[in-house]
Write a structure and sequence with these properties.
Layout lengths: L15 E2 L2 E2 L22 H12 L10 H19 L6 H13 L22 H26 L9 H4 L13
Antiparallel strand pairs: 1-2
Helix pairs in contact: 1-2, 2-4, 3-4
Amino acid sequence: MPAYHSTFNSIENVRVINGLPLLPLITRTRGPSPYADPSMTHDAIDEALELFRPNSLFKNFEIKGNGDRLLIYIILFTSQCLNRLRPTTTQSEATKALYSLAVTNVVIPADATFPLHNMYPGVIDKSESDTLRQYLAQVRQEVALRLVALVYAGDSVAPSKWWMSFQKRHFMGKTMA
């Protein structure tokens, strides 16, 4: 059974930096993301959170486009977020912890500390690197907000055991440190 790929692989006329497309996001977080069309109901973050659990089971993943590269980044960050949560973490504590994780030490795929940096093309100059870092910070903040809403959907006191069961699963056996 093959892994699930991004539906954003075929989108054209989008700025691409370091192999990552700067896709429009449905967000109120400030950043360099293009404004989303008001009719847009599903963005790359929604897709990545939906595909996180099934794709976490795969050890191999064939990149079919730039949308897949963004999907990989979001899945790795989601895994890092889940590893920060504990069964006793309340929703408000989780919101604070994941926000601080999202805004500190934003790693871009061009950095040597990124686990799959050899699967991404290099960055041309510092301005592109800074723009990508700002975009990924915006993505990370939005992922943190939406993930807390999903993990604590039924209960604000304890996280969902179905989401927490994926703490030990690592996409392609890799984690972001």
